[in-house]
Design brief:
The protein has 118 residues and is mainly α. It is built from four helices and no strands. Helix content is 61%, strand content 0%.
Length: 118
């Protein structure tokens, strides 16, 4: 019994593909018609935001302070991976504290504007 060379085996994904409804040819949306800005433009607009620059400054200041603190104890410790890890943790903590401060001041301002129930 020879197998037919043209006969194809059913693959695992073929059943799912057969059950999907097929789209009409005119249903395709043309993405070329929509003008999208370059992703770097969006990133530059984000970087221009004052809060982002404050967060970067707070993180950089905390990182430099952590490295300086490690260097004051032992000058060779500045080059260690542990020093870089501590600097990253300090930067993350400073950025988190600044974000919480910003968020809490925003919620406080909103709650001050809401009328109180009597």
């Amino acid at each position: 019994m020879a197998k037919d060379k043209k006969a194809k085996k059913a693959h695992k994904g073929d059943e799912a593909a057969a059950l999907k409804p097929k789209k009409a040819k005119g249903d395709k949306k043309k993405h070329a018609d929509i003008a999208r800005p370059h992703p770097l433009e969006a990133l530059s607009r984000l970087a221009d935001h004052p809060l982002v620059s404050e967060l970067l400054a707070a993180g950089a200041l905390a990182a430099v302070a952590a490295v300086a603190e490690a260097g004051s104890k032992s000058p060779g410790a500045v080059k260690s991976a542990d020093s870089a890890k501590k600097a990253g943790k300090a930067a993350a903590a400073a950025i988190g504290a600044r974000l919480l401060k910003e968020f809490n001041s925003g919620t406080k301002a909103v709650s001050d504007k809401l009328p109180t129930k009597k």
